[in-house]
Amino acid sequence: MDREEFRAAAHSAIDDILAYFDSVPDRRVLPAVDPGYLRPLIPENPPVESESWDQIQQDVDTKIKPGLTHWQSPNFMAYYPASVTYPSILGEMYSAAFTAPAFNWLCSPACTELETIVMDWVAKSLGLPACFLSTSENLGGGVIQNSASDAIATIMVAARERRVCELVLAEGLKEGTVEFDERKMDLQPRLVALASDQTHSSAAKGALIAGTRFRSVPTRLEDDMAMTASRLREVLEKCEEDRLTPYHLTLTFGTTNTCSVDHFAEIKAVLQERPEWQRIWVHVDAAYAGASLVADEWQYIAKDFAEGVDSFNTNMHKWLLVNFDASVLFVRNRFDLTNALDITPTYLRNPYSDMGTVIDYRNWSISLGRRFRALKIWFVIRSYGLNGMKAHIRKTISLGNTFADLVRGRSDLFEIVTKPAFCLTVFRIKNPEIPNDTSGAVCNKDEVADGITKKVYELINTRGEIFITSTVIDGIYVIRVVSANPMAEEKYVRNAFDIIVRTTEEVLKKKP
Ligand code: PLP
Fold first, then answer.
1. Tens digits of per-residue pLDDT, 19-77?
2. Is the pTM of this model over 0.90?
3. How far is the CA of 155 from the centre of ligand 1 (A)?
4. What tens digit of pLDDT does each residue of 120-141 get?
5. ipTM exceeding the 0.95 mark
6. Is 80's C-beta closer than 6 angstroms to any atom of ligand 1?
7. Which sequence positions carry the modification called N6-(pyridoxal phosphate)lysine (predicted)?
8. Is the distance from CB of 425 to CB of 397 less than 8 angstroms?
9. What are the pLDDT digits (tens) for 488-511?
10. Residue 289 alpha carbon, nearest atom of ligand 1
11. Is 425 helix (H, G, I), strand (E, B) or coil?
12. Short-list 84, 26, 69, 20, CA closest to 392
């Protein structure tokens, strides 16, 4: 493809992308294809001769689009959203054009420096305490990671190194000696990472990657599935009994199942009770709900992170208008990361890195090469402005409230299982054989209601007009509905509710 062919192809691709966005609301949100649908449509071997852009683009239309799940559809109400916006796409275009895997500052100073500046912008936009800024006295700062899972695995490795080195130093061994390293390896298997049983699976995976144990703190429906101080204390005491060393605690701001928020303040108070608990690395995983902090009315939550929290992550690619991948991780002390992850062979050395006056982001993450993701974040923040971003959060939270009110309004059919939060409503179908419970609490924890809820959920997704997800909370089968992508609108939320009501009535009628 030469320069002029690229110009024509790029124009045509942009037109096609715009037409795709225009068509998204009318497309079936889930594709009607079977597993393996694509292989017969694509030649078995790659083409020997060059093909035209027209041919390639035609195949996108006829072979790829039919197999897409349309995450941008306003009828997509499953999982959590994965947003994309025009300025974000432009950021991706420039990033691809500049392709400069800036693992060291020298490899492309603009990539590193813009990332540092933009991470400070993000921290300020979210009202994070000043300790997470790159300009802080404590040498904090932010780094863009591929995903929340990468961020969590990265900080768990850093937390393990910090704790195990402290333990070995306390035994009087000297860093850099064989004895020191051997002792670290002896102690590592006794280290344990903690998180609630509602924490995303990335915490358990992070512990696995860090080569340590993992234990979960139980949650209860009566606490809205949040981690409480008393439950955590019980697990910490059990670890002590079992002679394990807790080194990392994941707290969640917006769990995957129900968007519940762990009890930060009281948990931090428990960690102050023993000197060894004070050494635990506390991480706040706000992969989805962290975006809400951009709106002033939620920023009080971030005040809890000023003390006793070592790191925080949120995925701008979920709810904050930047496309995947844009997971932002902030740490209180950058040396916790670089002490664990800086391995510098001769070929990576250069005068700037050696002077220690620049940031080399390869030492803040697992991968060496990195994409220029700061550009798209910069473009989005500038295009929307803080007011535009706040407006998006407020509008979608209000849509969530509308949906929750609709569910409450049909208490003959539905019961809300956990407190609706940050656009998410978690509910189930009532068992009509059990009389209404007007208190709103879950009253019929039985298999009949579970079976009906599952049937309704499956029928809705099979028909594909809207896409929703289900999960199990404290043994109860529930439906989750969240409408928060940039195309979300009230008419779609109301339509989704009508579909759920119609399908529920249909299933209840058929019930033997
Ligand atoms: N943490 C929470 C609370 C999540 O909801 C999710 C995914 O939905 C993750 C972590 C993992 O995110 P990622 O796909 O960026 O690894």
1. 999 999 999 999 999 999 999 999 999 999 999 999 999 999 999 999 999 999 999 99
2. yes
3. 15
4. 999 999 999 999 999 999 999 9
5. yes
6. yes
7. 318
8. no
9. 999 999 999 999 999 999 999 886
10. 3
11. strand
12. 84
Candidate from 147, 200, 283 with most ligand 1 atoms within 8 A of CB, to mutate: 200
Q: Which atom belonging to ligand 1 lies closest to the Cα atom of 254?
A: 3
The CA 319 to ligand 1 mean position distance, Å, reads 12
Class of domain 145-354: alpha beta
pLDDT at position 447, please? 80
End-to-end CA gap in the chain: 63
In the chain, the percentage of residues whose pLDDT exceeds 90 is 92
Q: Is 221 exposed, middle or buried (0-12, 13-18, 19+ CB in 10 A)?
A: middle
Q: Cα(404) to centroid of ligand 1, in Å?
A: 23
Burial of 77: CB neighbours in 10 Å, binned 0-12, 13-18, 19+: buried
| Ligand 1 contact via 256 beta carbon (within 6 Å) | yes
Residues in the chain: 512
CATH class of 383-510: alpha beta
What DSSP letter does each residue of 310-345 carry, written as one string?
-EEEEEHHHHSS--SS-EEEEES-HHHHHHHH----
Q: Is the CB of 298 under 6 A from ligand 1?
A: no
The answer to whether domain 145-354 and domain 383-510 are alike in fold is no
- Site to probe by mutation for ligand 1, drawn from 196, 259, 285 as the one with most ligand atoms within 8 Å of Cβ, is 285
Domain range annotation of the chain: 145-354, 383-510
Query: What is the spatial distance between Cα 424 and Cα 413, in angstroms, rounded to a whole number?
Result: 19
Q: How far is the CA of 69 from the centre of ligand 1 (A)?
A: 19
Establish whether residue 413 lines the binding site of ligand 1, counting it when its CB lies within 6 angstroms of any ligand atom. no
